[in-house]
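A note from the maintainers: we've had questions about how concatenated examples are separated. There is no special marker in the raw files; a new sequence line simply starts the next protein. For clarity in this README we add a label.
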Amino acid sequence: MNIVVIGPAGKMGRLIVEVISNRNDMKIVGAVAPKGRDYIGRDVGEITKIGKNLGAVVVDDIEKIIDKCDVIIDYTFPEVSINVIKSAVKHKKAVVCGTTGFSQEEINIIKEYSNEIPIVLAANTSRVVNLMYKLLEITAKTIGNISDIEIIEMHDRNKKDAPSGTSKEMGSVIAKELGKKLEDIAVYGRRGKGERIPKSIGYHSIRSGDISSSHTVIFGLLGERLEITHHAHNWECFAQGACDCAAFLQNKKAGLYTVKDVLGIEE
């Protein structure tokens, strides 16, 4: 498969380029960076410092290279991702989108575009995190209605959105099993006085140093509690997962897919 990476100089972009360069089933044919960057026109391998040139250059306009690829992998920002997907629809290319922080309106736009092309929309491409979703589903179904549920998520100081897209997905999984919508029962942070709101899901976001990613969901009962936690020690698991998502999209029909689809995790 031929891959175009959006944002190759970012922390995820660099890792995705490296993972692609070490796989036998795909190759990178180009990358797209913002206009004005001093590395436009240079080899992708050179600017990502993976120790070898890849014979693919960085451009500042996706239209220059999009016809060379089968799949686009994009971990950038909502406004960038929407434009990338627009171009993908125009050229009938598949997209793996790991961007987070979309508004509901933007998610609805992506859903509409998925009627034209195959898209994997994944707030988290870790295999283990997606297994955790299944564990949360089982737990919420079993003890959710008798638990005080809290979600604590930690990321590096540079993460733009809070709470994280992954923690929102976790909350949505739990809320669905409770017969609720997350937006109706989520409480973001606390201050002042007053008891905990019954049947709510509490959110707490920590941004510090270079924490890769950490999510803990607490199901608190009287006399005991269950904690389900995932820690990512670095971002490589997400880059590997992104490339697995790209491989999954080969010959797929138009539609909106998740990492559960990629991994074959049953609903």
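[label: protein 2]
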Amino acid sequence: MSEKKAVILLSGGLDSATVIALAKAEGYACYSMSFDYGQRHRAELQAANRVARQLGVVEHKVIGLNLNGIGGSALTDTRIAVPESPTEGIPVTYVPARNTVFLSLALGWAEVLGARDIFIGVNAVDYSGYPDCRPEFVEAFERMANLATKAGVEGDGFRIRAPLQNMSKAEIVQAGSRLGVDYGLTVSCYQADDEGHACGKCDSCRLRAAGFLAAGLNDPTRYQ
């Protein structure tokens, strides 16, 4: 019987670390992919490396992109401030086309590896309202993946797995803790310093802190 492989998008944050643990618990050999895309919070890349080692992925790949060449987001354009209080509508931390681009490259690697499952840690409960985190987007990308690839046309097809989709942040933290995720290795902050210390004010920091509080678990986040 051939090895069951999965490609997993790994940002270095809380959610994607949990997804790796969940995939491993399902018996997948995990191949993680991160992106150096011009983000201001590059400490997450070091965190991704730490998480990949701790959770024993088979291979961790970092792909260089230039999404800051497009701009349009507080995460890729330092002239746009990261909001430190809740805002109305889709926040300026939304990165245009980010999950579409990331999943497309993960799809390419999955086809090369012979993997048929691609995991992404998007969430539609405790999240910032990004359009490319919704179930409709995940379903649409899966349809596209099976139209656009040799493996999709000739083989078994691909599944885009989003196991955190309907979980609260507290439920995510509890699930990962049961599976041995060391959240002290992760970085979620949108404006973390070079050592990975969090601001404690941005949307991602607020969601993370509220998740640990609601879960009744110690928050290992290191703050500035």
